[in-house]
TrEMBL record:
It comes from Hydrogenophaga laconesensis. The lineage of its organism: Bacteria, Pseudomonadati, Pseudomonadota, Betaproteobacteria, Burkholderiales. Pfam families: GST_C (PF00043), GST_N_2 (PF13409). Residues 1-83 form the GST N-terminal domain. CDD domains: GST_C_YfcG_like, GST_N_Ure2p_like. This is Glutathione S-transferase/GST-like protein. Keywords: Oxidoreductase, Transferase. SUPFAM superfamilies: GST C-terminal domain-like (SSF47616), Thioredoxin-like (SSF52833). GO terms for molecular function: glutathione transferase activity; oxidoreductase activity. The keyword Repeat does not apply.
Length: 239
């Protein structure tokens, strides 16, 4: 059994999707980020960085793993699935995983902060981060023009990037002119394990249902988490 400490964020959903895809039994332990549960001493013993997600593998003697990318690699290596075993294939997956960890995630995260969460709008900052998100999306689109998935077969690289790309509307970035990215986004969204994973846990905010007024209410409530540096919830209705 694996314990998954998580919340409804792109990084959290990476790991729940992977667990669902791999068919591993796990127990969901949702942390209330607004109440600061990620900073409780018991959780800091699992993840000293005080962020989500983290996993504890009881089959491995209670082995703890923090950082979403590290969790994905651990689960793939534990099962022998979602990442090739040969050196070149493994490297291809890790390259695109690092692309998400070092680019897509941080840039979309900053776009979210300046576009959605800061009460004061700073156009230069919004343009900077939305522009970089769009550049990274074009990189994905160009690669996907000639590849069904990012690194050969469907892998943890696809899961990691998709969990963020699906929320592009929340970052204020349009992908209507990126047909290959849209094709890939929709194909992954149709996978039953992915559909289950993004509901564990489900976000309280749905862009399609609640609209921009609902988004603003959600953003106001979330601003205090920006002050703590914690990643925020991912809205529904983005993919």
């Amino acid at each position: 059994m694996i314990d998954l400490y998580t919340a409804a964020t792109p990084n959290g959903h990476k790991v729940s999707i992977a667990l669902e895809e791999l068919g591993l039994p796990y127990k969901l332990k949702v942390l209330n980020l607004g109440e600061g549960e990620q900073r409780h001493p018991d959780y800091l013993a699992i993840n000293p960085n005080g962020r989500i997600p983290a996993i504890v593998d009881h089959e491995a003697g209670g082995f703890a793993v923090f950082e979403s990318g590290a969790c994905l690699i651990y689960l793939a290596e534990k099962t022998g699935h979602l990442m090739p075993l040969d050196a070149k294939g493994r490297s291809r997956v890790l390259q695109w995983l690092m692309f998400q960890m070092g680019g897509i995630g941080p840039m979309m995260g900053q776009a979210n902060v300046f576009f959605r969460y800061f009460p004061e709008k700073i156009p230069a900052a919004i343009d900077r981060y939305q522009g970089e998100c769009k550049r990274l999306f074009r990189v994905l689109d160009g690669h996907l023009a000639n590849h069904e998935y990012l690194a050969g077969d469907y892998s943890i690289a696809d899961i990691a990037n998709w969990a963020w790309v699906r929320t592009h509307r929340w970052s204020g970035v349009d992908i209507a002119d990126l047909p290959h990215l849209k094709r890939w986004r929709d194909a992954i969204r149709a996978r039953p394990a992915v559909q289950r994973g993004i509901e564990r846990p489900a976000s309280s905010m749905d862009l399609e249902r609640d609209g921009e007024k609902g988004a603003e209410r959600f953003a106001v409530d979330a601003r205090r988490m920006v002050e703590t540096g914690q990643s925020l919830q991912a809205p529904k209705g983005a993919a």
